[in-house]
Amino acid sequence: MATKDSVNITSELTEISGVVKWFDIIRGFGFISPSDSHKHIGDILLHVTCLRRDGYHTISAGDIITSMVQKGECGYQVFKILSMAKSVSRNVLMSPDGEISNETLHMRGILPAVVKWFDRSKKFGFLAVKGIEKDVFIHIETVRKCSLSGIYPKQAVFIRLDNGAKGPTAVEIYLNTSQSYA
């Protein structure tokens, strides 16, 4: 006798490609924005258990994902990840030899910085940027939006700045893997 849970769900699955809008590793989920041909279904939930089960350990906003999705009570959810490609925007910082040129960074408005301190419980921290006297504020939502689980004192990063109400604010952050801790 078939139960509700053992119903053949393969007939309910749809293959969809899209872009990761955001993924918060701490919360354990994120959302995918489907490609134009499936925009009508809205954002698709991606849970960390699906990510891990299908062999993926990292995911970032902007990554391109192809998956089988299933409609649930609260909308569509990823059932199985078929493939994932790293964000092109993340790779535009790198030259073919894996180095990041200062000219490339400057053209894109991205600055190298070092984490002064960051407190997860307070949900914010400050960065030091050469040539900027004031400390640069960073909020935990910016860290999460850029799919990082956390940042740590003396960690080398790249940031994009904006002028906040109280001074310079980081609106994007990327790990600087070419530098070790300062």
TrEMBL record:
<dbReference type="GO" id="GO:0003676">
    <property type="term" value="F:nucleic acid binding"/>
</dbReference>
<dbReference type="InterPro" id="IPR050181">
    <property type="entry name" value="Cold_shock_domain"/>
</dbReference>
<dbReference type="InterPro" id="IPR012340">
    <property type="entry name" value="NA-bd_OB-fold"/>
</dbReference>
<dbReference type="InterPro" id="IPR011129">
    <property type="entry name" value="CSD"/>
</dbReference>
<dbReference type="InterPro" id="IPR002059">
    <property type="entry name" value="CSP_DNA-bd"/>
</dbReference>
<feature type="domain" description="CSD">
    <location>
        <begin position="15"/>
        <end position="90"/>
    </location>
</feature>
<protein>
    <submittedName>
        <fullName>Cold shock protein</fullName>
    </submittedName>
</protein>
<dbReference type="GO" id="GO:0005829">
    <property type="term" value="C:cytosol"/>
</dbReference>
<dbReference type="Pfam" id="PF00313">
    <property type="entry name" value="CSD"/>
</dbReference>
